[in-house]
């Protein structure tokens, strides 16, 4: 790889991490709020995922991949459908093990973030920038 390409990838990765922190805070905050008001974890995860997808599409698309082409939002939703299923399965396992669901939500953030980034890079924003 050329130095310029590596530098661009490094900048994109830094943007991804920073935007990911913002997106994570938003998504987890909504999830925790829904749990707090008594919502079942599956519904809390589902609704926070839908709201997070909309928020994330604009932040990730615009800041990380420099693209908010609305035609890509369908693929973006599909990627997050996969991430949602991953989260709900993980939450169900943690719930079965009687592990606190607030902690479970936090523990699932890193693997879900990696899964989301890889799928977005490949299937949603591949070739952009």
Keywords:
mainly alpha; 129 residues
Report on the structure:
- This protein has 129 residues and is mainly α.
- It has one domain (3-124).
- The protein has 4 helices and no strands.
- It has helices spanning 3-36, 41-64, 73-96, 101-124.
- α1 (3-36) packs antiparallel against α2 (41-64) and α1 packs antiparallel against α4 (101-124).
- The model has no long low-confidence stretch (mean pLDDT 88).
Rg calc: 15 Å
Mean pLDDT: 88
What's the helical proportion of residues?
Answer: over 70%
Strand tally, please?
Answer: 0
Strand content: under 5%
Q: Output the helix-strand order.
A: HHHH
Number of helices: 4
Inertia-based shape:
elongated
Largest sheet: none
Terminal Cα separation, in Å?
17 Å
Structural class: mainly alpha
Query: Regions with pLDDT < 50 over 5+ consecutive residues?
Result: none
Domains, number: 1
